[in-house]
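Table S5 (text form). Sequence records supplied for joint modeling of the two-component complex.
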Amino acid sequence: MTSSSSSSPSLSRSETLSLLALAAACVAILANAFQGDDKPLIVSLALSGLAFCASFALIRWLGPTFIKAGFKGVDLSKHHRREIPECMGAVCAAVYLFAIIVFIPFVFYKDVVAATSGGGNRDVVLQVEHVQQGRFLHRFPHSKLSSYLSAIVSLQTIASLGLADDLFDIRWRHKFFIPAFAAIPLLVVYRVDFGVTSIVVPLQLQPYLGQLVDLGALYYVYMAGVAIFSPNSINILAGINGIEVAQSVVIALLLALNDGLYLLTPYPHPATDSHLFSLSFLLPFLGVSLALLWHNWYPARVFVGDTYCYFAGMVFVVVSILGHFSKTLVLLLVPQIFNFVYSTPQLFGLVPCPRHRLPRFNARTGLLEPSVTPWTPDRQPRPPIAWALKLLGRLRLLRVTLDGEGRFVETSNFTILNLWLVWRGPLREDRLALEITAMQTVVGLFGLFVRHRLALLVFKEDNWSVPS
Amino acid sequence: MTSSSSSSPSLSRSETLSLLALAAACVAILANAFQGDDKPLIVSLALSGLAFCASFALIRWLGPTFIKAGFKGVDLSKHHRREIPECMGAVCAAVYLFAIIVFIPFVFYKDVVAATSGGGNRDVVLQVEHVQQGRFLHRFPHSKLSSYLSAIVSLQTIASLGLADDLFDIRWRHKFFIPAFAAIPLLVVYRVDFGVTSIVVPLQLQPYLGQLVDLGALYYVYMAGVAIFSPNSINILAGINGIEVAQSVVIALLLALNDGLYLLTPYPHPATDSHLFSLSFLLPFLGVSLALLWHNWYPARVFVGDTYCYFAGMVFVVVSILGHFSKTLVLLLVPQIFNFVYSTPQLFGLVPCPRHRLPRFNARTGLLEPSVTPWTPDRQPRPPIAWALKLLGRLRLLRVTLDGEGRFVETSNFTILNLWLVWRGPLREDRLALEITAMQTVVGLFGLFVRHRLALLVFKEDNWSVPS
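The corresponding structure-token record, covering 936 residues in total, follows.
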């Protein structure tokens, strides 16, 4: 009945003071931003700081409420199995959406003023008849507002789906396609605002295909595919403390870095607006995610729930579709794509799939080991599967244990976490999360390098080089 | 352990056939609508039929799932107290939002075609340079899309709030103002698109105030007030089977009738678009609500939950703000306003407020009687309160029971449902719901009559009369 400091639902004095100081600084920055010129990035950063403070405090305070409402889980990879709050990603999603919605009047403040009275826009010399009419509506960037609102609709839809999944355990086949519906507003806005469905053909293929290939409707199918894949892929790279949030933070940071590359080009890049838009959605996401990571990192004091995974995946979809860089997102999801492809033998039932495939906790050593699918002498894989499993074992892509007569005893489960443990041996939970996160970072940085440097080998131009 | 037919989670054969027939008819209408001309109302009606079918089936099927997830309640006003699913309004909200989101491409189909290729719009003669550019973006009604999306954002926000309330029982003071935040996207769009903050002054006051009074920012405070009041007021006129849904259906029907008055004017009314927009949100709401009413009417097989009440209230706010008739909504909420004002003595603590104020079920007669606040000889109301209570009692606005020495024994609780029982005597639950619904209808019709007929006594013009 003793409550350790780590599970107390109140903030310590130093935490309270730090959060208050950070919040005060952010409020000061916000107040200042209104005095001076347009500094959307600074405003967005301050907002993200506030979102961090709010999430941090709410995650702590709402723990008992969530447990009382039935959102609780037991950490299987610990000696002391106690119940901790589950589904705390819902708090992050709520804070994030609240921040983004409350922010609408600020984002569009100058536009509203310009569109409705002209008073705030000193660059525009007003003609008398305009002043008389009082308004010149065509100046308001309605398409920007549509983009912003469509992003919010998509994110709210996916947050509701995640919450429904946490509440009701929706069946896999029912929930798999719902992110595509959540993406409908995005795709409509993309169609109307941008509508580019052509992809640039690599130089080497241009003699055969021409410079551009128009995918037409297929391009929308591709974007819906990204919208389905991204949330689901974050959701299946899960199972150890901190991994869901850490991978999301890395991807968000890399997307933000990619945005930064466009903002720092030597000449004003035509895509500057798209990337500012993207940053204004990514920075608050980083704010709420870091607050969650603080509580979810080993040893976890809260679980994130499916809500967070879906939500994080959809944030990436939203910024990459509306920012017109969905192919860059695919590059950053390479570990997730690998995890999904690697999982297919179990997802598609070629190999039996237990309910949980998270790494096995060895209570004696306190380390994680690969979890396994057991095979009995009566129930052996069919010959082609057996051959493939042995091949994977020889390629060190699977741990295969055979008995003296060459029959399968057990094979490690098909997830990247188990594979990493096959390669690196038993690891403590936080060590495994750290290594996977480092791998995600390295792969992502390489992806961005490919995108911006090596791409010049196969494409004629990029944001850093003007066409010759 | 016997499961009566009314609580079976599957549809009967005749229900299945009826729903399938209705759904097939709606799909046929939708398919036809794409062949022919623009018939937004027909399309919306067909969509609403589909929403009805989906809600009806899902409410039935998901009952056990909701009970398993902890969404269950006991009906206090029945002889047999068994647990039935709670919070089924969440299903309606989800179906509604799903329908509205999936519908976006259809609503804007012709606009997208016109804006992106011109191919679908036979009225427009394309100039060569436009065809070359491929797109003429300014043609797309971005402001319409913004309105549509802002409505969805507001509704999703309120649905999430309702669900959070059903899950966590949020404290009154925490949740009271949240609808105002949910309305932010609406108010921004209102500001940008319409921005009228003047109200017409009654003829009799015009010599003193002029023809129009510009309320400026106060008008936004007023609209935020409506956004707070409407969801909360539906939520406090609750407690007996069917009453939450029945009042919402009546208000939605009256709003739709009001829209119809604008569509049937002898000349094309300038507000036609606003009212078509309003209908396209009201009709699907009627679809999902009628499916819920079927299950929630006496004897209720499901409860609706706070989610439904908040959601219904916000649908009215959305259509009335974006349709620019928020004052008409206030007229239709007169019974809710009365209930709120009448409740204030208990809401503000002048009279003790028990946890539940729903009418008391008399198990002997099977009828509902007014529930009461008991007073002990030690704990009597203070003199001014006692005087006011006695006055209310004399005006037949309260049932007051005194003992032989003039001390208070009990007073009926301050809700319109209890007051109605004071007036009309003990009633069966469905009879009470029916009478309150009839009263809501009559008051609402009178409100519309005032709005469209008597208004001419104090205002110079209306939708039925051109200014002379």
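Note: DSSP finds 20 helices and nine strands in chain B.
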